[in-house]
Amino acid sequence: ATPTSIMVGTGRGADMGVLFRQGSALQALQQANGVIFDKTGTLTKGEPELDQWLTVDADDKQSLRLAASLEQRSEHPTAEALVDFAKQEHPLSEVDKFEALSGLGVIGQVEGHDVLVGSKTLMKEHDIGLQKSPDGVDKWIENGLTPIYVAIDGQLTAAFCVSDPIRDSAKALIQSLHQRGLKTAMVTGDAESTAKRIAEQVGIDKVVAEVKPDGKVDAVQQLQQQWGKVVFVGDGINDAPALATADVGFAIGTGTDVAIESANVVLMSDNLNVVQQAFALSKVTMRNIS
Ligand code: ADP
Ligand code: MG
After folding, report:
1. What is the pLDDT along the chain (290 residues), one digit of tens a residue?
2. Where in the cell is it found (predicted)?
């Protein structure tokens, strides 16, 4: 590989919105056998809206206020959807204690109550029984929507679901990657049923769901053993370790700073087709070299 052709290649990449932070990433792409995608914010737009809010107790007025108050401190798109929804009806409260649990949810204290908002996995970890889930949650799961649970003082009190549209460019990208002979997979912290539904819609056949950040790393390592060299595409804090583990890490440019810092390549376009163009560019660049 001559330094000049790499420089020309990375320059062309920049023109189309693909920033190669190291020239070596352009070379490495040529050897990749598979591409692994995060779901939320990567294959989907990452701009969820709250679809439905359900409480266990019909008279419950406080769960929404407490949950949304806590989520004011979170940067997660789901949190934003809840806050937007709640704000229309309730003034929100100060947060006394807050911790974000990457890929799981948030935990803290509001108005003297212990508040927990997040995934099924998060509830399990805190021994919150989901048997009393509001009527309707099962339907969400069947339909591929993600339930987010709310527990106050150790009891499940409410659940909500958000919908996050798939990026228009996702399906065509997966098709063109398959045409290039690349394998594809999705690795997500989201619920299995939701993940499978989205994977089906975009044409990805391998899904690893309900994993935390280190679970994403495990999945990347396993796929490296099965496939060889892999690219990981992600946007979130919970993707950073996986981006660093993959042979080439692609971060969505509008994603979190930690993801961008852990990646070799940054995508400045919201059209996912640039991923495919990056492979094409790598091929052309390497061909010019040999
Ligand atoms: P992905 O791996 O697909 O990008 P996320 O990082 O968005 O998934 O997180 C996985 C799951 O963790 C979400 O589907 C949601 O259930 C839960 N979660 C993470 N952060 C929050 C939050 N601030 N509020 C509620 N749920 C959250
Ligand atoms: Mg994400």
Report:
1. 688 889 999 999 999 999 999 999 999 999 999 999 999 999 999 888 999 999 999 999 899 999 999 999 998 889 999 999 999 888 999 999 999 998 899 999 999 999 999 999 999 999 999 999 998 999 988 777 889 999 999 999 999 999 889 999 999 999 999 999 999 999 999 888 889 999 999 999 899 999 999 999 999 999 999 999 999 999 988 999 999 999 999 999 988 899 999 999 999 998 999 999 999 999 999 887 65
2. Cell membrane
Question: Hey, what CATH class is 49-163 in?
Answer: alpha beta
Contact predicate 95/72, CB 8 Å: yes
Query: Which numbered ligand comes closest to the C-alpha of 104?
Result: 1
Mutate to test the pocket of ligand 1, among 38, 40, 140, 208 (most ligand atoms within 8 A of CB): 40
User: Alpha-carbon distance 130 to 116, whole Å?
Assistant: 13
Q: How many CA atoms lie within 13 A of 56 on its CB side?
A: 15
Which residue's CA is the closest to the ligand 1 atom numbered 7?
40
Residue type, 80: E
pTM for this entry: 0.84
Question: CATH assignment of 3-45+165-289, given 3.40.50.1000, 3.40.50.150, 3.40.630.10, 3.30.390.30?
Answer: 3.40.50.1000
How many angstroms separate the alpha carbon of residue 219 from the centre of ligand 1? 18
Q: Is 153 an active-site residue?
A: no
